[in-house]
Please model this.
Amino acid sequence: MKLKIDGKIYEGHKGETLMELARRNNIHIPSLCYKTGFEGLGRCRLCMVEVKENNRKRLVSACVYPIKEGIEVSTSTEEIEKIRKNIIMLLLLRSPNNEYIKKLGEEYNVAPPERYMDASEVEDCILCGLCVKACEAMGRNAISFVQRGITKKVSTPYDEPSMDCLGCEACAEVCPTGAIKIEDRKDEKLIWYRGFGMVKCSVCGKELIQENILEFVNEKLNTEEEPICDACKRKAVASKFKDSFQHILK
Amino acid sequence: MDKVNNRKILVCCGTGCLAHNSYQVYLEFKKKLEEDTNIDVRPIIKSTGCNGLCEKGPVVKILPDEISYFKVSVDDVDEIVEKTIKNYETVDRLLYFDVNSKKRIKSHKDASFYKGQLKIALRNIGEIDPLNIDDYIERDGYKALRKALNMSPEEIIREVELSGLRGRGGAGFPTGLKWKSCYQYKDYPKYVICNGDEGDPGAFMDRSIMEGDPNSIIEGMIICGYAIGAHKGFLYIRDEYDLALKNVQGAIENARERGFLGKNILNSGFDFDLEIVRGGGAFVCGESSALIASIEGDVGEPRAKYIRNVEKGLWDKPTVLNNVETWANIPPIIINGWQWFRKIGIEGNHGTKVFSLVGKVQNTGLVEVPMGTTLRELVYDIGGGIIGNRPFKAVQTGGPSGGCIPKEYLDISLDFDSLDQIGSMMGSGGVIVMDDTTCMVDVAKYYMDFLSEESCGKCTSCREGIKTMLDILKNITEGKGELEDIDLLLEIGETVRKASLCGLGKTAPNPVLTTLKYFRDEYIEHIVDKRCAAGVCKELTSYYIDSSQCIGCTICSQNCPVGAISGSLREPHVIDENICIKCGTCANKCPRQAVKIGGMKVEA
Model:
């Protein structure tokens, strides 16, 4: 399937989204809620591009738009740039103190009207939904969107510690704005209102991994391995090598 | 009048009338008729769906005498039985008072509220007991299904296509084309869905049909199922619609018993069944892709519709989704043929449309008129004009996503395309009439507030855009607005419209954009003069008495709840602004309109 992006012809696969094709070909389309390996979510609206099909132009979000033969795509027009700037302005009004969003604002040269900025606002989450998808991919579904409209947020059911949460931190890993906080406490990590006890390395005693994760992995792999940290594991392997090497020398 | 057999007393038990105790009226009639042995011809008594003129309920109709009584209370039942049922006389004081002709009218059919109407979707409502399937069958019910089952699917689709019927849910997509596209996809199972998640403020068209004539929806859906090759349908009904849920469920069970639903319908070999899904109470679930997500058990968020429902809808299978009113139009089209339907209305917009006419209009209620009827006819002829003969200011059509239309457009034709052209929309058919006591900035704020809660919150543009527009409008109505706010509203509104995913987001700025287009002066008055001429925005309102007009009648000071008005008899009165709570009672009560509305009180 052939289509044009910014004047150049590209070959696409059927069922592929415009964003997937663009990423494969190193074409930059800005996005906050798209991550390779995840399906497009169509939430942040930064990836709006113009598609011309049968002489009809329309704006689509690249991350959820399935490509079609013969379409002509413009990834940046005056109209699109204006939309992106306004969306970034709205994000800055929501999260005026988030470093990532502030940087984006500088990059796009956007400054929201100060009268509507709340300097004390500490919101970091921009509701991109990647964390929810990551949790779903882990097979846990511990967090999801709750409520709607301007009170929408991501949380566990009833904002209470969830027994489905592994404390695996996949949600925090994919978060573009660093909105998911993990608090290190003595002998435990606090994430999504729940404390997770830590397993210590059986050799050096260093904190290694959340108990739940180890349990989960052991169950999945049907093993029961001794918990050893990476450094100690390397040492153990090295000493084995050392033994065999010395044996050969003899 | 001669004695007649087959007399009927129809007591309206639609939601509006029920709220005015109509069920007690119904029970009282039943009791009276059972107890009284002196009635020669015993009438049948029925509780029916909504008659439309909810404001004048409870409504009682007596047939075939063609007498309609309004605002009937339990205490009136005795008199109606004695005079009308036994002696064939009318009880004049309960007849409809026509505000246009200033006369009492015996049959509702002659009332100006009903005269301009043409009932297709509402044809049975108020005439039948919705839970009695025989009532429906008596009025040609399931005749269309019998006819359709002897037609080929292609013939049915052609009939609907040629009729020119367009989806009554808001967007006005040609129904026949939708069915035809779905028919062409050979991917099974296919589904049929009825969208009954009506949630616009002030709208109750679909509710009335679901409550008053559920069989017409069911029949429409079965016919579509047969035409596109689906065997299963879902009715997605707003959970707050208790009576609608009950009546539709009852009608489905009745239809199953009679063999209209289930296996081998009317020995045709065609199987079809229906199931109700109760909506979770989110306005956005009226959007088709969010509705489908909700049926699937997902969060009710719209999805991208670059692939249409007719190809991949419910569970990614070909699906036809139509609105309640659209379904109710199907049986008459099949019975009477496409030519009949096409003659009604205007080119490109055929048939009728149901509007819920509410707000500052004399007759509020449900109205079904041919497409192309003008706004003026709707508001003045059918609606009887503005309450208290105040000046007309605007109408808001199409619900929260619609726009406000000023008086310059009173002669606009009510159809999908004309409304679209001036920045509003047909929507599902809500019409809210506003007079000079309405503040347009406040109206825009009201809708942004509604949408800030009812947007699903998925798209940044819609969620944050609405929130920011609401913040700006709050500032303007509280006297903190600046002229640059107008540009900011336009700028954000445009981005919300262009960048949002679903229909809700794309149309969400309409209330702001249309009021800015047609009532910009009012915004400027709020921002620059710090004044709200309608006296709605309290921070921008002050009341004072024009001493040259005040006759010193003391009515204002007697009615002031906080004792802010002083003055002696026959002397001009004065309002103490420090005590005044700006309730506006004095302005309403003053017989000489001497109480004036001023702007925001500025500290000297």
Chain A has three domains: 2-76, 81-116, 130-233.
